[in-house]
Specification:
This protein has 644 residues and is α+β, with helices and mostly antiparallel strands. The chain has 3 domains: 118 residues, Penicillin-binding protein 2a (Domain 2); 99 residues, Arc Repressor Mutant, subunit A; 358 residues, Beta-lactamase. Helices cover 36% and strands 21% of the residues. Strand 19 and strand 20 form a beta hairpin. The longest helix has 23 residues. It is elongated. The termini are far apart.
Length: 644
């Protein structure tokens, strides 16, 4: 009995394995088989997956380009290739490449008479090489000789050169964007080695909007040759070279057509290729276009004011604070004020960092809560701090009696300075020596990183950078760090930070991908998982939200988001010293403005970050009332709530 059970079990395993190989791995082993034989070649390209917004609007599509290719077949002679070039020249029109004519003249004419008897003798003695003989011939072909070539010969010369361009075994592009009529004639001519195929190029349906974030496609870079060959690519394949196209290459790439080389060297389609998967973004193109419009409009308004010489760009990100999904992101740089010309600098959102000022103060208070330096309701009389050999450091104005709520809503520097001093284990006294250590700085930075400040966010784009983390330690710099005037942060770091505040301590990756789809069927759906939690009790995180809400109601963030949306927010003002004449010496102090916020407080739907670096040269504090950050924030949040 046991013997039969074993036999049945073995037979069942055999049948299951057979089914698995024939159904689930059939294509895999067929491809392996085709790749091992010399009688099969792949087509040049397959359409990449499209890129869509969250509502199904096609942002990046493909255009089929009718293209003629030549593939060098095994055993083909030079004379046969000349015949192929001549047959094709009788069908197509092609721009003549004059540089190709001499070489072709050599192929179709007996030019041995161009070499002297003495030179042939030197060749026989191996004192002249074949290459040198060819160069001598080429140098002696005259313009009169070339004028004897007719138009078909000249077109053949150009085609012949294209047939030998690049790697000998790769497919050569002869002509693209051919008409339907020519395309059909080439097919009907059935010229050996010549194929007609649709190649695919990217089409951007919204012009340059987000084009840099979508990224570039192109031939495999030399430095990644081995990586792609190991994945089964061919050297002439088109791949994603940057940003989303690169990050999601494995999903966006299509499967190419497979051809069998027939006995007469013609090609027959064996396996039809297929498009890549579609990448669906969390981007809402309507929100995206409105955000771009607001940024450009307000940059131009600011540039009409004095002292804005070095203000050229502004940045903003809008998204869902509870998931990290990005609805819109824009960096705009003014190139020419008169023509109102702008350049997209969206990639700066993940690669460029800025001093951001007081927007970090919620993270500073969190550090104070964690180390029991302050607690809910801890109050101080706002003032100034004087440390040994450090100039007096104060809030922007005297704020009277403040607590943890008003320290945020009214933006007290003094309150943050007292937290910084407390981190060192000292109690403040006038003109004291603080004797800071790197550990004091790390206490701040560790908490800041819990929110996403000073660390990689994990956004689904390659080449993300973090801001500059200062390497020096001093009493003055520790106080500066507490108010956002030392380390620098990228806009996407600020986006992760405000989302962590809005979600009461849940830190998630900022994400552009909502799903991967194939024929409208979901292949992958983003789950927006939590990376970590801020190590504070919820009561403290709720306290920070309350402080940000008060900032919108009657504090420094007033009117940045309409109060009817029940928002929270925080502004930041920072000083930056810049080199204005490229002499490696900083000579001008500029002011940068920042804002981050979210709404509504109880169940946040939207979060926003706005940064306007170097908005004006510091001349007069009152002149800083340039409302670009407020106008962008209020404008886009109004748009979001009115169109939800």
């Amino acid at each position: 009995m046991k013997k039969y059970v074993v036999l049945i079990l073995i037979f069942s395993i055999f049948v299951i394995r057979l089914i698995y190989l024939n159904i689930y791995q059939k294509d895999y082993y067929l491809d392996k088989y085709y790749a091992k034989t010399e009688n099969y070649v792949y087509g040049t390209s397959a359409p990449r997956g499209r890129i869509l917004d969250i509502n199904g609007n096609i942002l990046v599509d493909n255009i089929g380009i009718k293209t003629i290719y030549y593939t060098r077949l095994k055993g083909i002679t030079n004379e046969e290739e000349i015949q192929i070039a001549q047959k094709l020249a009788n069908i197509i029109d092609i721009d003549i490449n004059e540089d190709s004519l001499k070489n072709y003249y050599l192929q179709i004419n007996d030019t041995n008479n161009l070499i002297t008897t003495e030179e042939w003798e030197l060749y026989d003695k191996r004192e002249l090489s074949s290459k040198e003989i060819k160069e001598l011939k080429l140098s002696r072909i005259t313009e009169e000789d070339l004028n004897n070539l007719d138009i078909i010969d000249k077109k053949s010369a150009t085609i012949y050169e294209l047939m030998h361009k690049g790697y000998s075994y790769s497919k050569k592009e002869i002509l693209k964007n051919v008409s339907d009529d020519i395309y059909s004639k080439v097919i009907d001519a059935n010229i050996k080695g010549i194929t007609t195929e649709l190649t695919w190029e990217r089409k951007y349906n919204y012009n340059d909007t987000l084009k840099d974030i979508f990224g570039r496609i192109g031939k495999i870079p030399i430095d990644k040759k081995e990586e792609y060959l190991n994945k089964g690519y061919e050297l002439d394949d088109i791949v994603g070279l940057s940003y989303l196209e690169e990050y999601y290459e494995d999903y966006l790439k299509g499967e190419k057509d497979l051809y069998k080389v027939n006995s007469d060297n013609t090609l027959s389609l064996v396996k039809e290729g297929s498009p890549g998967n579609d990448l669906v973004l969390s981007i809402d193109i309507n929100v995206q276009l409105e955000l771009e419009r607001l940024i450009k409009e307000n940059i131009l308004l600011v540039k009409k004011r004095k002292y804005t010489d070095y203000f050229t760009e502004a940045y903003s990100i809008v998204g869902n604070p509870l998931t990290g999904a990005i609805m819109a992101l824009s960096g705009q740089k003014l190139l020419d004020e008169d023509s109102k010309t702008f350049e997209n600098v969206n990639t700066n959102l993940i690669t460029s960092s800025f001093t951001v000022g007081s927007v970090v103060k919620m993270a500073t208070l969190s550090t104070g809560y964690k180390y029991n330096i302050i607690d809910i309701g801890s109050s101080e009389l706002d003032g100034c701090v004087k440390l040994y050999q450090v100039p007096l450091k104060c809030s922007y104005k005297s704020l009277g009696k403040i607590n943890d709520l008003t320290a945020i809503s009214k933006s007290s520097n003094y309150y943050q300075f007292k937290i910084a001093i407390g981190l060192t284990g000292n109690k403040y006294t006038y003109n004291m020596k603080l004797n800071t250590t790197s550990e004091d700085f790390n206490k701040f930075r560790d908490m800041f990183q819990e929110y996403g400040l000073g660390s990689i966010t994990g956004i689904d784009l390659p080449n993300e950078k973090i801001g500059i983390i200062g390497s020096l330690t001093s009493s003055d710099l520790l106080l500066n760090l507490s108010i956002g005037q030392y380390d620098t942060y990228t806009p996407v770091e600020l986006f992760q930070y405000v989302n962590t505040l809005a979600s009461k301590g849940e830190k998630r990756k900022p994400q552009l991908m909502a799903s991967i789809q194939n024929n409208n069927q979901i292949v992958i759906e983003n789950s927006y998982n939590t990376l970590s939690r801020v190590p504070l009790e919820v009561k403290y995180l709720e306290r920070l939200q309350e402080a940000m809400h008060l900032g919108i109601l009657n504090g420094t963030s007033r009117n940045y988001i309409k109060t009817i949306y029940n928002p929270g927010g925080k502004t930041g003002t920072s000083e930056t010293f810049i080199d204005t004449n490229n002499d490696q010496v900083v000579d001008t102090k500029t002011i940068s403005l920042a804002f981050l916020g979210f709404a509504p407080l109880d169940n946040p739907l939207y979060s926003i970050v706005v940064l306007t670096p170097n908005i004006y040269i510091e001349k007069d504090y009152e002149y800083s009332k340039l409302y670009i950050t407020r106008n962008i924030s209020q404008g886009i949040t109004n748009f979001l709530f009115e169109n939800k």
